[in-house]
Every structure is written in structure tokens, then in C-alpha cells.
Write the C-alpha cells for this entry.
Amino acid sequence: MQRVFMASVIAAGIAAFSVPVVAATGPSAGAASQGSSVIAQVLLYPGGAQVERTTRVPAGATQARLACLPAGLERDAIQVQAAPGINLGELKIDRVPRDSLTECRQRDPRVREVEQQRDAVEAEIAGVDLALGYLKGLSDREAKPGAALATSLEALRRNAQELTLKRQALKERLTDIGNDLAAAKAAAPTASSQVSVVTLRLSTNDGGDIGLSYRLNGAGWQPQYRARLDTATGGLVIERLAQIAQNSGEDWTDVKLKLSTVRPRQSVAVDPLQPWTLELDRPKPSARGLFRESPAPAMAMAPAMADMKVEVTGARVVPLSFDPSVFEGEFGAEYDLPQRVTLRADGAVSTVSLGRTTAEARLLARVQPKTEPAAYLVAELPRPQGSWPTGPVQLFRDNALIGQVPLQFGTEKTWTLPFGLDDRLRVRVEPDKREGANGGFIGSRREVVLTRQWQVENLRSRPVTLQVLEAAPVPDHEDVRVQTQFTPPVTTAGWRDRPGIQMWELPLAPGQTQRFQAVYRISAPKDEYVSNMP
């Protein structure tokens, strides 16, 4: 009976001092207090962004105040729109220290999370210490002589041992959390020490909404693509992606985001044409003689650094390498993301999906014997409609990543994507045969006959469409003469308007071997040097 009583008392004591951990929650994203502003939408374009904020003013208000805006806000980059019945007046921008405004002070979410973990562990250690103290006092009160004393002491010892081991584990956990907290503070972005406060004078009887939009630098997006090929069906799925990042000075939390390929402040008209004048430029005598002095050469910036924009925030240097040139020559396109996006002002790159396109591709086994005795699988499809800015394409063949190539259409009407080596096609290239050598002279001319031969064998269990490319010699002078003979006859001469590029295209059944031969008879004046002469 004594043992049961002691166990129930100990359990009740431990339960009395246990501390539950409750996750802290805050107001929903986008909710605004009276007089504050919220970001309604962000338009991200190459090299910058346009942020649209809204705030509501009550009836009879004489001014609207929007705080915590980026420190680099420029007056000519701001536009204000107001509901009917609101008369707008003077707009003023003040730059003040961030810490001077309570609503502008920022804490890193990761640091806050680790601090909450630390507080929870410290509270649990305090609970264990309190439980150990309770057991010590309980042993002093209940240690009465009798048969049940040994049993009571054993129960106290066992519970005290468990609590002591738990305390040691919590202490170790607290040490690990301390290290995590130090790392989180070191990795936390340093917010700008200055913020902008916009004050707008106005008059209104009924109140309403005011919209404030402004442009920011230090932001951008870059296109990226994923192409997934099903070799069994020839189906091709192309996924459009966008890599987005910003270091503008303000966080965008759960905002509506649009992406545009159009850059603001671009040239809208050609510069005036200047007259073409011819002047006689004679050097003028100087104290150092009649020689014109050349100006000292200016130090040129390395191209790699000239093309890269670097934003410095506190002790961290964040490179923003979004290249606006990939959008040149493209018609304007705008992508309205269906999902809301959170993008912190730390330069970290995030990836969002812009949708998928499905197409039926024509699969080819392409061989270039002169380059490499191997066959490569390529997918050919008509050029898709719309705006496709230049960007990297990740290639997946039957769900396996095989590589990456740049997307760049140029003027071609078809789009060809390579999907790696086709090792089930065996390519054999025989050594070139050359006739004529050094003694191959005919009269006043020198003549060489070059024969190239190769064969392709299909080791697959299904037929393939074989495409073979060969570069035939192209003379650039009438005194250089070339005669060609191809077996079998070529399908297309001057493939894709490229002089001399010959193309064979034919089906290759399972187990079939196809031989090819190209014979070139080249002659030129014997006293003339001809480049690339075999």
C-alpha cells in the first residue's frame, strides 16, 4: 500500500511540473493594421521590379503615411493613384534610421525559430529541476522506518535517476541549440540601416484606398526550361521555369507576383541622324612639338565584372547575375503566377513554374562520322509559338537527367533537342583513302581524289530514323574545282542552308547495316596554295 501511494505521489509531482511546448503563431500574411500599407502585387522584370502597395485612409484624413519602404526609393519612380473623392497633394520622402521606427524593426525568422527552441528547452530544464527538488523534499517527509521504506527509497531513486539523465540530455540539447543560434545569426541578412517614409498630403470626405507604386533595382528573373522525352512514344513535355531573386531592401511576403519580359526605360526611338561631314584634321603646334598627344588610356573594366551587378548589404556581398540581354528580340510576354510567393531581400534564388507545353517530337538518330563514330538521339519539333527567352534547358530522357543545353532559336523554324548517346547504334568509320599524293599533277593542275566510307548498324529491336551529316568541300574560287559522288544519293544538299553540308535520312530496320560512301575529286592550280586541301 505504501508503494502504491509513493508511486502516485511521484507521478502527480512530475506531471505538475511538466511544461508543454506551444508553437507561436502570428496574424495571417497580408493583414494590415489601420493606416498601414500592404503589397498588392509585384511585377518582376529583367533587372528590376515594380511594387504596388495599397493603404486605406479614413474619412476626413489629411495625410497618408507609408513607412518601412526601401531606402533607395526615388521620387521619379513613384506613382500614386487614389479612389474618386480623394484629392492628392504634396508627396514627401524622408529617410530615417530603421531602429527609430518600431514597425520597421526586423528579426530573422530562422533566428526567431531557434530562440523559441532554446526557450522551450530552458523551460523544460527548469521543470526537471523543480521536479527533482520536489522529490528531495518528498523523500525527507516520507522516509519513515518500516517494512516499506526500502521500496519507497527504490522508487525515489529510480525516478530521480531518470530525471537526472533527462536533465543531462536537455543540457546537451541546449548546447547544440546555442551553436545553431550562433550560425543562424551569422547567416541572417543584415537589413539596411535606413528606410524611407512616404508622407502624402490629401483631403477626403468619404475615405477610400490609395495605391502607391514604385520601381526598384536589385531584382530580376531568368528563364529556365526542362524537357522530358518519352523515347517509347516520342512525347515531349517542356516545362517553363523562372529563377527569381531580389535584394531590393524589402521582403515580399505572400505577394501576388507577375513576371514580364519587357524592360522599362528601354530605348523607345532611334537617335536623330547626324550630318556626315568630312574635315581636314591637321595637328596643331604645341609646346612639345608638332606631334599630337594621345590621351592616356582609361582602365577598362573586365567584361565579366561589367556585366554583373553586385549589391552590398552589411557584411554580405550578394551578386545578382540576371542578364537582361536574354530577352532581347522577344515580343513582350507577361506571366501571372497563380500561387502567391514569398521572396526575402537576401538575394537567395527561388524557382517557380510557369506552366508546361506538350508536343509530339520526331525522333532521329544523328551521326556525324567526320566528328565522332557515334550516334546521338535528337528530338525535332516545330518551333513553338510565343516568347521563349534564352535560357538553359535541362534534358531528361525517360526520367533520367542526361545534361543541359542552352535554348536559342535564332532564325530556324524547327527546334532540335539532343538527348544523349544512342549506344544501340554501332558506327564504324574506315580510314580515308587518298589518291594523287604529291605526284598527282595533270598538266598545270594538281588533283586529289579522297574517298570516305562508313557504316551504321541498328542493334535495337525496333526501327529508327537515321540521319547522317557530312561536310563536303566547298570551293571559294573558280580555279578550285570539286566533283562529288555520294552512295547512296544524299537526301538534302546544303542542309539548313549551310553550303556543303550533305544530309542522308532513311529508315534503318532492326539488325540492318547501311553503308555510305563519299568521293571527292579536287583539283587546283599546281602553283597555288589551297587551304584545307587533303
Summary: The longest helix spans residues 149-187.
